[in-house]
Input
Amino acid sequence: QVQLVESGGGLVQPGGSLRLSCAASGSIPRFVDMGWYRQGARKERDLVAVISSGSIGIYADSVKGRFTISRDNGKNTMYLQMNNLKLEDTAVYYCKLRNRVSGMDYWGKGTLVTVSS
Output
């Protein structure tokens, strides 16, 4: 089993920054992809960014140029640096880990990001 714990959410004003972390523990597979997703009020859970084991990031158009995804394989931790936050970035942000061999997905419980003036 894999456990994922997100942290770093909070209340921030428009234009501000936050850094989210996702710490993975347990029986972590060797080949994994990781990503951040978010779900706003009355909305579906959408992709924010994903990062491969080779640390190549892919971003949703809505966050390109503002968010940066990264990972520290030695610490089994993934990050999401969020800059120039907008009201529409308000959501619960979830961490996902995918076992590339089995296709099994693991999810964290989420961390709330609120952008408000």
About this structure: DSSP finds no helices and eleven strands in the chain. The radius of gyration is 14 Å.
